[in-house]
Amino acid sequence: MIKEEFGDKVILEPRVFMLRPEPDPTAVFNDYRRSNWERCNDQPESGDYRMWEGGGDYPICSMPSAQAGLAARAQGPEMWDAFHMNLLAALFTHSRDITRLEVLSDVAEKSGLDVDLFRDEVASEFHRDQAVREYTEAINRGVTGIPTVVVNDEAMLVGAVPRENYRFVISHILENGELPTQASQGLPQF
């Protein structure tokens, strides 16, 4: 991972972003989503995308998982990292509805979180306002989807880009003190 490679030279500040901040009953696993998941799965380092097998309803709202992410982040960066990876696996690998509190609690337990505190915070919507703030800030920056990585508050890397793109940008900033202005060998241009 990038953090392991660059260590303290890189500061990662995870934020939540909701694709569906309000419930959308029309959100289903359709051909559009299937083609995107297939495209992601075909990329190197993509993770384990499996086609939705209906291990429950397909998630129709991002708010519960956003609040859950914030509850995990409140327990520390390591807890956030573990929870985030396990949450992605719950949805993309195990076809679990990550809007359900029992699924989120299972993910929290697997991630080593204080599950009672986590459950209380998610059930009470303790982090709802923060989720809305982070979503609004992202929209105001021009973020429209995930993943999006904001670099030095100046530029964005959007979509599932190869790790080499991140290495190129970070190395260029560390060596030159600024974002790259020209693409190199098909890598990003800002």
Q: Could you explain the architecture of this structure?
A:
The protein contains 8 helices and 2 strands. It has helices at residues 2-6, 31-41, 63-74, 77-92, 101-110, 115-123, 128-141, 163-176; strands spanning 148-151, 155-158. A two-stranded antiparallel ribbon has the order 1-2. The chain is globular and about 50 Å long. The model has no long low-confidence stretch (mean pLDDT 88). The protein is mainly α. Helix 3 runs antiparallel to helix 4 (77-92), helix 3 (63-74) crosses helix 6 (115-123) and helix 4 packs across helix 5 (101-110). Strand 1 and strand 2 (155-158) form a beta hairpin.
In a few lines, what is going on in this structure?
The chain has helices spanning 2-6, 31-41, 63-74, 77-92, 101-110, 115-123, 128-141, 163-176; strands at 148-151, 155-158. With 190 residues, the protein is mostly helical.
β-strand amount: under 5%
Radius of gyration: 17 Å
- How confident is the prediction overall: mean pLDDT? 88
Q: Which term fits the overall shape?
A: globular
Structural class: mainly alpha
Strand order of the largest sheet: 1-2
List the helices and strands and how they pair.
Elements: H1 2-6, H2 31-41, H3 63-74, H4 77-92, H5 101-110, H6 115-123, H7 128-141, E1 148-151, E2 155-158, H8 163-176
Antiparallel strand pairs: 1-2
Helix pairs in contact: 3-4, 3-6, 4-5, 5-6
